[in-house]
Amino acid sequence: MKDVFITKIAKFLPNKPISNEEMEEKLGVINGKASKARRVVLRNNQIKQRYYAIDEHGNTTHNNAQLTKEVVEKLCDENFKTKDIQLLSCGTSSPDQILPSHAAMVHGYLKNGNMEINSPSGACCSGMNALKYGFLSVMTEQVQNAVCAGSERTSSWMKSDVFENEVEHLKDLEDNPILAFNKEFLRWMLSDGAGAVLLEGEPNGPNPLKIEWMDGYSYAFEMDACMYAGAEKKEDGNLKPWSEFPADEWGKKALFAMKQDTRLLGANILVKGVDSLKQAYAKHGIGPEDVDYYLPHISSYYFKEGLYNEMEKQGVPMPWEKWFLNLEHIGNIGAASIYVMLEELVASGKLKKGDKILLHVPESARFSYMYAYLTVC
């Protein structure tokens, strides 16, 4: 088996940063009324700015595949061109269409020649699953290199017109708010962007990182869906998919809006996250003392203190000085977040040879978690 190294990292954040006060202008006002939930959600998540693939006139500047194409090209130079890529593995929770796959669309924009592609589905963990596929492919010498990416273009899912049809059908219902909180919650949480890495079997480049191992854990066998799109959650906790609704109901029920069961999220995301972390530690014979930089993808700073406390409670405390976060100024870009976080850490100049980095990515869709353990070469 070959050792596998991250030899290049890139990020692409579209357009200029968007402040909290500009968000509703970009995404649109629902039913002509300013959101009551926006300030509550923003106060809790503490995100100060984020990026949208929307210009100053409200027009879309990039689709998801174009965002990914841009970040892949940033990995390339005179010595490594897009035509040299042997495997393209791209994860996202917000593909531009159901078919063709996301990676196929990115490959179409690259126009770089024949190669293998892979499109893991899911939410935040899809970016890590894309990385693991590349990791295993290089490790087993199926390919000599792989480009792995995570990206999101959720702004198109959060625009007001996605919800307006539903609003029209709620106006006559006395006991319903204009928009249920679990649907509006994610409007103020998610944003756009892409991150990518180049994997090779040799420690090339100025800042190579060796991937020691990657692990994943799913709790779907015991947990209901928590974040979902293209479905409606029933009283018994099961999802009824869009394909089982008449077409004229799709807009009325805002079936394609992303939704979050916030009560299920708060009660379980941290407990299961630390439980899976302990399993990863035990499997590989390490602990918090073997980590120099801890990069957790948290959707909101609301969970930061809670995660710290839960790790203490379960006996695996992580000192604050090891944490590295960038949510406040980058925003929550789902599958891309961990790539952009790692890119920023490497660019900071803080790393030294031998440092150990732990990537920790949760996915609330049905509670799954991915880990990667890296060594600075």
Automatic annotation (TrEMBL):
GO terms for biological process: secondary metabolite biosynthetic process. Residues 282-359 form the Beta-ketoacyl-[acyl-carrier-protein] synthase III C-terminal domain. Residues 120-201 form the Beta-ketoacyl synthase-like N-terminal domain. Keywords: Acyltransferase, Transferase. GO terms for molecular function: acyltransferase activity. Signal peptide: none annotated. It holds the Pfam family ketoacyl-synt. InterPro entries: ACP_syn_III_C, Ketoacyl_synth_N, Thiolase-like. PANTHER family: 3-OXOACYL-[ACYL-CARRIER-PROTEIN] SYNTHASE 3 (PTHR34069), BETA-KETOACYL-[ACYL-CARRIER-PROTEIN] SYNTHASE III (PTHR34069:SF2). This is Uncharacterized protein. The lineage of its organism: Bacteria, Pseudomonadati, Bacteroidota, Flavobacteriia, Flavobacteriales.
